[in-house]
Design a protein that fits this description.
- The structure is a single chain.
- By secondary structure, this protein is mainly alpha-helical.
- The protein has two domains: 52 residues, Homeodomain-like (Arc Repressor Mutant, subunit A, Orthogonal Bundle); 165 residues.
- Helix 5 runs antiparallel to helix 7.
- It is elongated and about 60 Å long.
- The termini are far apart.
C-alpha cells in the first residue's frame, strides 16, 4: 500500500545516506553491510532487505555519486543568454558546484579506480561521462551555429566549426570542470575556484570560443595574461 511504501523509501534513502558517510570516512572498500547498518542504526537484516548483497549497495551509492558529479545542473534564466555566455555561466556554475562538495568527487575518483578492475563500474562511469559531455555539447552546438561560414568584406571566409571540434570542445569543458574539482580535493584550503575559472575562461577566450566579441589583438592579450599566470603559478 502507498502508506506502507513511503516509509520503506525513506528507510532506503537513510541507508544510502549512511553508506555515503561510511564511504567518505573510510573508502569504498570499507562499505560493508555491517558497517552501513551500524551507521544507519538499523539491523543487518534491514539493510539486506533493501540491498540483497554488498555489491547492490556499492552500485546504488555509485548512482548517487554519478548524479552529483556527472549530471549538468542548469541555472535558471540561462536560456536568455547568448550561447557563448551560456557556456561561460555553466562552466563557472559547475566548477563551483563540484568544488563546493569535494567529498562526492573524491568518491567519484575512487569509483573510477575501482572501474579499472570492475567492468560493470567502468561501464557505468563511462556512460555517465558520455552523458555529461553530451549535455555540454548542446551548448557548444549553439556556439557553432553562431559561427556559420560567412564571407567578409575583405574576402576572407569564416570557417565552420566541425562536429569533431564541437565534440572536442565539450570534452575540454568537462575536463576543466573535473580538473577544478580535483584541485579542490587535493588543496581544499588554498585552492581558488574563481582563479581556476578565470584561467580556464581565459584559455577558451584565447581560442575564440567564449569571447565577448574581442578583437584578435585583445585575444592575444588574453593569451599573454594566461601565460603570465601560468609562469607565476609554477614559480
Amino acid at each position: 500500500m502507498p502508506g506502507q511504501k513511503a516509509p520503506e523509501e525513506h528507510r532506503r534513502r537513510d541507508i544510502l545516506g549512511a553508506a555515503y558517510e561510511v564511504a567518505v570516512r573510510h573508502g569504498i572498500e570499507a562499505l560493508t553491510v555491517r558497517a552501513v547498518a551500524a551507521r544507519a542504526s538499523v539491523s543487518h537484516g534491514t539493510v539486506l532487505f533493501h540491498f540483497k548483497r554488498r555489491d547492490e549497495l556499492v552500485v546504488a551509492l555509485l548512482d548517487t555519486v554519478l548524479e552529483a558529479t556527472t549530471v549538468l545542473h542548469i541555472p535558471a534564466g540561462i536560456e536568455r543568454l547568448t550561447p557563448a555566455a551560456r557556456l561561460r555561466t555553466l562552466l563557472r556554475a559547475e566548477m563551483e558546484r563540484l568544488s563546493g562538495e569535494p567529498r562526492y568527487f573524491r568518491l567519484f575518483l575512487e569509483y573510477w579506480t575501482l572501474g579499472v578492475r570492475d567492468a560493470v563500474i567502468r561501464r557505468r562511469v563511462r556512460t555517465a561521462l558520455d552523458g555529461y559531455r553530451r549535455a555540454f555539447r548542446v551548448v557548444c552546438e549553439g556556439i557553432a551555429r553562431e559561427h556559420r561560414p560567412t564571407r567578409r568584406r575583405s574576402g576572407a571566409t569564416r570557417t565552420r566549426i566541425s562536429q569533431p571540434a564541437i565534440d572536442g570542445l565539450a570534452a575540454v569543458v568537462v575536463s576543466l570542470v573535473h580538473g577544478c574539482a580535483l584541485q579542490a580535493v587535493i588543496e581544499p584550503k588554498s585552492f581558488s575556484v574563481l582563479q581556476h575559472f578565470e584561467t580556464a575562461s581565459g584559455l577558451l577566450d584565447g581560442l575564440g570560443v567564449i569571447g565577448n566579441g574581442t578583437t584578435p589583438s585583445a585575444r592575444r592579450g588574453v593569451r599573454s595574461r594566461v601565460a603570465q599566470r601560468a609562469t607565476l603559478a609554477s614559480a
